[in-house]
């Protein structure tokens, strides 16, 4: 099979969309399928494994400058036409993905749209007036034109369906339970972060408005607790002022990221606009209790009281109170250990090979439906 992936984000940008695309390319490579990646930005590699990467120009939005947006151009169709795909995979389509969809239609090949970014929620978080309604109109128009849409959580399936998007299927995300595991805890790192045996409560992800990391400020001054922040982004200066005693470890990947997760005691995700929340799943694989808003993707991942706790998603004051009380509860080492063990057990079978084989099934089904027509 020949698969063309048109993605809104790719290396050197590292985020959930990029990581998912990388895992898909790796799986296609391992299964012997030919792959092309069309991605925004002139920086970054021109090949990943067997897959050539065709680049288009990208621009920064005035408000969200850390996420370059690919500019649709004739290069998209030229790249796809030259490659001759059997199916076009649209990774979190919005702008560049729309061009990929138009090209698929011109070429007469099926398109699978993978919904991954809550653009409507992001618009609200950035204070864009009427942005959420406009985003949903565009999402409905775009995804309705695809042969099927794959959504990462049941909440996302429901939201898309309620907004009039047809042919929506559930496709979750995998996690590498060898890379993310309790055994990767770094005693030296722990000793440096918690010299007096503090409870390490951590966040991993982009430091951007939609993540609402400022909510961790409620833990400032809580006895016996130290906040650890892993990641970077435009909110970092503000967060450093709000959390003067927190440890900011910066952006980490690979073994350093795995060690950072495993060296924590509790993981907190703060933002309510996650279609899946891969960071929460990586934390669970690392044996951590996960605290997250009772909204979106975390609802699929966290069984409240058994693998973590779901908190009030939108009211900041209630979220703060629930976060403080739950962190205090998890100061109990035995309870924390039981919940962390249950969290890891709950994701042991959610491997990338398993979910990518499921994706190949979707490719086959849309290709077969096109041939039958």
TrEMBL record:
Q: Name one Pfam family in it.
A: Glycos_transf_1
Report keywords, A-Z: Glycosyltransferase, Transferase
Entry's SUPFAM superfamilies?
Answer: UDP-Glycosyltransferase/glycogen phosphorylase
- Asked if the Swiss-Prot or TrEMBL record annotates the protein with the keyword Ubl conjugation, the reply is no
Pinpoint the Glycosyl transferase family domain residues.
194-344
Would the keyword rRNA-binding turn up in this protein's UniProt record? no
Q: Which CDD domains match?
A: GT4-like (cd03814)
**Which InterPro entries does this chain map to?**
Glyco_trans_1, Glyco_trans_4-like_N, Glycosyltransferase_grp1
- Put simply, this protein is called Glycosyltransferase family 1 protein
Task: Name its species.
Answer: Actinophytocola gossypii
Which residue intervals define the domain Glycosyltransferase subfamily 4-like N-terminal in the entry? Answer: 14-179
């Amino acid at each position: 099979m020949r698969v063309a992936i048109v993605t809104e984000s790719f290396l050197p940008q590292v985020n959930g969309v990029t990581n998912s695309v990388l895992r898909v390319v790796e799986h296609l490579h391992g299964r012997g399928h030919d792959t092309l990646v069309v991605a925004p930005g002139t920086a970054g590699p021109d090949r990943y494994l067997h897959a050539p990467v065709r680049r288009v120009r990208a621009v920064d939005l005035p408000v969200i400058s850390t996420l370059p947006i690919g500019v649709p151009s004739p290069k998209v169709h030229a790249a796809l036409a030259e490659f001759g795909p059997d199916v076009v995979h649209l990774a979190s389509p919005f702008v560049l993905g729309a061009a990929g969809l138009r090209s698929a239609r011109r070429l007469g090949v099926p398109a699978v749209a993978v919904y991954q970014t809550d653009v409507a929620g992001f618009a609200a978080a950035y204070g864009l007036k009427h942005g959420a309604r406009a985003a949903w109109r565009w999402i409905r128009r775009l995804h309705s034109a695809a042969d099927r849409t794959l959504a990462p959580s049941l909440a996302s399936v429901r939201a898309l369906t309620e907004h009039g998007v047809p042919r929506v299927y559930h496709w979750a995300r995998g996690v590498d339970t060898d890379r993310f595991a309790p055994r990767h805890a770094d005693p030296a790192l722990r000793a440096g972060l918690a010299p007096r045996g503090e409870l390490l409560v951590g966040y991993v992800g982009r430091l951007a408005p939609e993540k609402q990391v400022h909510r961790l400020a409620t833990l400032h001054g809580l006895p016996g607790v130290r906040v650890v922040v892993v990641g970077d982004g435009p909110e970092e200066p503000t967060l450093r002022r709000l959390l003067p005693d927190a440890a900011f470890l910066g952006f980490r990947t690979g073994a350093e990221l795995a060690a950072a997760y495993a060296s924590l005691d509790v993981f907190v995700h703060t933002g309510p606009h996650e279609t899946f929340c891969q960071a929460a799943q990586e934390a669970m694989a690392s044996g951590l209790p996960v605290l997250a808003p009772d909204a979106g993707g975390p609802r699929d991942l966290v069984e409240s009281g058994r693998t973590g706790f779901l908190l009030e998603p939108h009211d900041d004051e209630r979220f703060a109170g629930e976060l403080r009380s739950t962190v205090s509860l998890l100061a109990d080492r035995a309870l924390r250990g039981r919940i962390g063990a249950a969290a890891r057990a709950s994701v042991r079978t959610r491997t990338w090979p398993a979910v990518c084989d499921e994706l190949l099934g979707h490719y086959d089904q849309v290709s077969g439906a096109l041939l039958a027509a």
